[in-house]
């Protein structure tokens, strides 16, 4: 099937993964807001952050509820945290793109990969935090995809996991020895290991290059706005790696379809 053929099964995959993305995005948004504050994501019903009213089912429809309510609470009129709709849109886009470039099991796997990366990126942006529970989940699911015969091979994935961890762990170790302080978060090597277990070792240089370029671009943008950005300014490098990893998955999958 040609990558630009949006009819038939391709359109169906795009719709299904988009809807799935919107639903998962709603969960990721709650995770991003509640988890760093020590609040449970799984327990308790959703409520307004302003007035505390328990939200009804009609208020929890991803994207649509926000549009109908114009981004405000139905009860008190308080502004709903924009992270909800932003993350839901991002998760929907991840599913849409995955279904378009690979309308099959590989596309579903790519969407799951993207949604996990989105959760990690959002937490890193919100709290400079890459929880072990999520990086381990990312790492475990990578080889599972390989067992089902999805590219790359299981061997490439395992090498990628080891290489991804060692590369960033070595950078962090060297910086600590030279500068006498931490220069890289402890979750970054684990994240790159998880990415390597999904993409294989051959794509890791591209992920690091794109991730570093994104980080440099953000630093330049902040500096241009008058923000003081120095060598010790903390930046969410994990978020940049996550974005780079999904970009690499989309690009390589797209190329593979054109070559088929």
Automatic annotation (TrEMBL):
One of its GO terms (biological process) is signal peptide processing. It catalyses: Typically cleaves a -Gly-|-Phe- bond to release an N-terminal, basic peptide of 5-8 residues from type IV prepilin, and then N-methylates the new N-terminal amino group, the methyl donor being S-adenosyl-L-methionine. One of its GO terms (cellular component) is plasma membrane. Residues 112-220 form the Prepilin type IV endopeptidase peptidase domain. It holds the Pfam family Peptidase_A24. InterPro entries: Peptidase_A24A_bac, Prepilin_IV_endopep_pep, Prepilin_pept_A24_N, Prepilin_peptidase/N-MTase. Residues 20-97 form the Prepilin peptidase A24 N-terminal domain. Its EC number is 2.1.1.-, 3.4.23.43. Coiled coil: none annotated. Keywords: Cell inner membrane, Cell membrane, Hydrolase, Membrane, Methyltransferase, Multifunctional enzyme, Protease, Transferase, Transmembrane, Transmembrane helix. It is a multi-pass membrane protein. One of its GO terms (molecular function) is methyltransferase activity. It is found in: Cell inner membrane; Cell membrane. The chain crosses the membrane at residues 12-33, 105-128, 134-151, 158-175, 195-222, 234-255. Plays an essential role in type IV pili and type II pseudopili formation by proteolytically removing the leader sequence from substrate proteins and subsequently monomethylating the alpha-amino group of the newly exposed N-terminal phenylalanine. Belongs to the peptidase A24 family. This is Prepilin leader peptidase/N-methyltransferase. It comes from Sphingomonas gellani.
